[in-house]
Design goal:
Strand order of the largest sheet: 4-12-11-10-7-5-6
Bound molecules: pyridoxal-5'-phosphate
CATH architecture of the largest domain: 3-Layer(aba) Sandwich
Distance between the termini: 40 Å
CATH class of the largest domain: Alpha Beta
Helix content: 25-40%
Shape: globular
Largest sheet: 7 strands, mixed
Amino acid sequence: MSELRNALPQIKTKTLPGPRAQAVIERRAKAIPNAIRCDYPLVVSRGEGAMVEDIDGNIFLDWVGGVGVLNVGYGQRQVIDTVKAQAEKYFHVMMNIGTHEGYIKLAEKMNEIVPVRGGARKTMFANSGAEADENAVKIAKGYTKRPNIIVFSGAFHGRTHMTMAMTSKKAYAYGMGPFPDGVYRAQFPYLYRAPRGYSEKEAIEYYIARLEAVFEECSAPDYVAAIVVEPVQGEGGFIPAPIEWVKAVRKICDKYGILLVADEVQTGFARSGKMFVSQYWKEAGCAPDIMTSAKSIAGGMPLSAVTASAEIMDACPAGTIGGTYCGNAMSCASALEVIKFIEDNNLCDRALQIGRKVMNYYKTELAKFGVVGDIRGVGSFIGLELVKDTQTKEPYPELVAAMIKKAAKKGLLIESCGTYGNCIRFLCPLVVTDEQLNAGLAIMRTAMEECLAEQNL
Ligand SMILES: Cc1ncc(COP(=O)(O)O)c(C=O)c1O
């Protein structure tokens, strides 16, 4: 089998999906619910590094990475061997019935690297990002003995009932109510779309005032257990929370005894240039109290985590948190190896390098087409916002949709995000080679150029 790890994108079939993939996609349509949407032609045969091959032999560069799951890429030998070795010993121990040491080792590692406030820390594991966020809310309620939480416009926290209530975009929750009570929403500091004429400082003051208005209009602050923030909004459009805003939120939390929860489900594990964006927060004196993580934690094995000080974590009454598969033995083994891989290969530094290159290319090569409204992000967590007119900022979701299709035909997988569906997110595995990255950037450029030249957008 040829080396996929260093290959470049190559579409070999006349049509995409190719014939074999098309047959599987047709079976998919009959066998699984349409609500699990997928508009991509990809039917995977194998993956290595940043590259994925489909069952017709087409080779794609993956800039989506399972939506942020594959920071260490596909098929890393050390991770595969570790999971295999664990599988030989046992698959599963339920932590209410026994103890498996992998859970403890991983909790110890997370307690060391997660930059939440407090001295001694504790970590619990769950299976998905949504579960981690649900548990963070339960733990915050257990600690503060308060019923309400505050979340933000543009937020995405998952698809369980609580996290649907927390998620902003109602397309993710259409027809699914009623939802849990006590979830109030403030405006996220989306600086690109701040009120016109405001300086950054004025905009931040405006958004802080909007947050404080929640205490007047929705819930008195002493009934608020937590403020839950994505340090860089993912689904919402790859929008960083400005550090001055985070500092002000931290102050509000301290004033009222509210816990600050950082949802690092998508941002975590080196993509930002640090292991977690919360590290930047900590360095600015505004570390969160609770941090959730998932996705890239275990390189594709299902796992998520909640980390906080021992004082906070031990406040929940016995039996109120946990679950059958939480902290599965193979997922924990995988996560320990993934974190080691990130550290051994300096992926935080690589994320900064990649991020600089992508930002620079977008600013010089894509901005000249006149449809780039904003380029933003932290490290290589980068969003590109496309607009029909840079003055009116009218969103251009049609161009994003066309570019996704066009790029796939050229062997590059990209994904949209943003409340208006007009942003493109960069979530490429951090093990991408320079040659592959250049190939991907060139595809972005031609995809944009060709889509704009076509009249039928
Ligand atoms: C910030 C954030 N939180 C929570 C979730 C939910 O994670 P999961 O799909 O694993 O439940 C996501 C998923 O995209 C996310 O981006």
